[in-house]
Specification:
- The structure is a homodimer of 434-residue chains.
- Chain A is of the alpha/beta class and 434 residues long.
- Chain A has 2 domains: 2-215, Aldehyde Dehydrogenase, Chain A, domain 1, CATH 3.40.605.10; 229-371, Aldehyde Dehydrogenase, Chain A, domain 2.
- In chain A, 40% of the residues lie in helices and 21% in strands.
- In chain A, helix 6 (129-141) links the parallel strand 3 (120-124) and strand 4.
- Chains A and B meet through helix 10, helix 14, strand 13 and strand 16 of A and helix 10, helix 14, strand 13 and strand 16 of B.
Chain lengths: 434, 434
């Protein structure tokens, strides 16, 4: 691997150059590259699986926890499914070249705002070899270079994967340097310092890791630190809907960031609702932690202050009884993480207040928080979920990997014409986008 | 002023609460608030001018440089024009509540992405009292709270202005805390640390100051550090157009960030073009600093390496002769600041290559770099110009002061329905946006 012979700065510079050439390729050429990468991965399947077997052997020897081991382990089915996913990325609409604004400023002076690749992505992810494949295909699709740093347990697998990707790229005449692999943990810190060459960092992994990245780089970060999702069950809730939604949001996939962590119950319905939902949850081994009033209605552990701001990612649910929708909104805006929060109510006015005033990327009414997901939203691919306030916010599709530039074409136009006493007015006429 | 009695954290919390109430007001109500603020400013004109006279007296005693003094000084005409500007902001399209996506995920499960205010803006600006008025009106229009920190020379003027704004807001029943004033320099650092309460920092002022802000906060920053704009005059340029464009871009307003700082001239036309443009520029007292080849064609100072990455904001222009459009592109991508760069050429293919490959917020063909401006682009108002890579990029209108949230409305929908063996497919049907 040449990556070992180069300083990270040189490597990033190479990626930047390669990304510039990738950025100007037409849609068809980038889709060809994706197809070539898919074919190269197919051709290298045996090598990739052999490399993965080595990683897995080492992981077993190191006593890697079972869930992490399972994510590391590639079998042929998982690999072939991932390659199908690469071909699917080829079929997505091109996020590059989208004309967002087309406006005549004056006769012969035409402004366009057009989406374009960001440049170089730095992606630091967990020990999941299939993630390297997904990410590389999304980067190529969006015309970006990518520097990949996988979890150390997946290094051999990712070497084999990136070798195959390089072969695929070279088969269609694209610089292999567009996709690079980092192999040591020390390189993460160096990567975060390369704000001159890297335009966006996408960290995947634990909350603590994402926060570490956010605190240690000037490069923009696309990621979410916490998913502390709430469901508020209002006095006007349909109780059957409320039960179905809470069960779905807690039990479907407790370690997902869009799983519910805190249930807020409106006081008037608590005596009827809480025992019912508690029985259902406890039957599924969910540990409940309640505030004083909740504990009086149902036998459960008492929640501490820390519980209200904890993402359990486990079969645990905190429960608080509130006196009003306003109190629910206040609590969510105080303790929530701005990911996704839901209200269950048949009262449209209450729902509207909740959805306007809750400050989160997703505000849901009468449905499960677990719909908060790029695929479920219909984005085709999910680059990540952002809990930052500024766009892109929430589940981010391919559009999160592009930016835009303004192109202005004139014919000798100068600003002096439009200034001073005899200033010509601008026409500012929006033109149809073809 | 109550601001003096409160800790900055308490003040920011108040602003956050007030901003939440402002955010959910309908368009008409926010426009009423803007009208009320304009009227209150009119009513307080005498007080504002008297306060400004005090600031100016102090500034004169302190020997404030003339250009800064001129920006500080308010006369009645300037004040009334600024108030007219406030009423104009009222007439702009509402950036809040714009439906960007409306999609049926399944029967009765409707996703919408809707623009909404960001929350609380922290705005640190120079000693320009009129800027306080403009910024407050843009914040109210976009449903955001704002914490204003003006240059210390403008404190008395800004106190009188913010008092009037508070009166205007209270006249229509809006919390005065939505707009707050900071009065000491120490508060800047405290403000930058309040990432829990402040959602966006807009720094205005010197490049060094903007960079200081970027380096000292976790809050997103909307601003540009440098405006190192290039014009490349290609061998296929129309020389008359090239001369007109370069003169406009250098002479119109040399201290603007969209003024040209470096001229790149294609070698084949340099002997004909350079003496002509140099004579015109030198006649207007522009100091020229050239590379070796330029110095051989025209008598001028020799440029140092530092010149190529300097924003002069003055009547100085660096000049380099290049051998190809590719060399010009490389230099711009190396030394430019990603603000605005232009090519002058009659060759459409060369122009296209330049515009695709130059990595800047504005890429211009046959027109002056000085068109890079929110008003000239037709945005109605300009919040700032961003040279960051991620959106918002380039001149930013009111859309830079809003974000969006996803609203999902169902009727008891759960994710389990769409998972597993008998998964129901999503419809993902885009609906017309009303």
């Amino acid at each position: 691997m040449q990556t070992l012979d180069l300083s990270l700065t040189d490597l990033a510079q190479q990626t930047r150059q390669a990304a510039r050439r990738l950025a100007v390729l037409p849609t068809a050429k980038r889709n060809d590259a994706i197809a070539a990468v898919a074919s190269a991965l197919e051709a290298a399947s045996e090598d990739i699986l052999a490399a993965n077997a080595k990683d897995c052997q080492q992981a077993a020897a190191d006593g890697l926890p079972k869930p992490i081991y399972n994510r590391l382990k590639l079998d042929n089915t998982k690999l072939q499914n991932t390659i199908v996913g690469v071909r699917d990325v080829g079929k997505l609409a091109d996020p590059v070249g989208d004309i967002q604004i087309k406006r005549e400023l004056d006769t012969g002076l035409i402004l366009q705002r057009i989406s374009c690749p960001i440049g170089v992505l730095g992606i630091v992810f967990e020990a999941r070899p299939d993630a390297a494949i997904q990410i590389a295909s999304l980067a190529i699709k969006s015309g970006n270079g990518a520097i990949l740093k996988p979890g150390k347990e997946a290094i051999e697998s990712c070497r084999a994967i990136v070798d195959a990707i390089h072969n695929g790229l070279e088969n269609v005449g694209i610089d292999r340097e567009a996709i690079q692999l980092l192999t040591t943990r020390e390189q993460i810190q160096q990567l975060l310092a390369l704000d001159e060459y890297v335009d966006l960092i996408v960290p995947r992994g634990s909350n603590a890791f994402v926060r570490y990245v956010q605190d240690n780089t000037r490069i923009p970060v696309l990621g979410h630190a916490d998913g502390i999702c709430h469901i508020y069950v209002d006095e006007a809730a349909d109780i059957d809907k409320a039960i179905a939604i809470v069960l779905d949001a807690k039990l479907g996939y407790p370690s997902a960031c869009n799983a519910v962590e805190t249930l807020l119950v409106h006081n008037p319905i608590a005596p009827g609702f809480l025992p019912k939902i508690a029985a259902e949850l406890q039957a599924k081994n969910v540990e409940l932690r309640g505030d004083d009033r909740a504990c009086k209605l149902v036998k459960m552990n008492r929640a501490t202050e820390e519980d209200w701001s904890t993402e359990y990612t486990d079969l645990i649910l905190s429960i608080k009884i509130v006196d009003s929708a306003d109190e629910a909104i206040d609590r969510i805006n105080t303790y929530g993480s701005g990911h996704t929060d839901a209200i269950v109510t048949e009262n449209a006015a209450t729902a509207e207040t909740f959805m306007s005033q809750v400050d989160a990327a997703g505000v849901f009414h009468n449905c499960s928080t677990r719909f908060s997901d790029g695929f479920r939203y219909g984005f085709g691919a999910e680059v990540g979920i952002s809990t930052q306030k500024m766009p892109p916010r929430g589940p981010v599709g391919l559009e999160g990997l592009v930016t835009y530039k303004y192109r202005l074409v004139g014919n000798g136009h100068v600003v002096a014409t439009y200034s001073g006493k005899n200033a010509k007015p601008f026409s500012h006429r929006d033109l149809p986008v073809n």
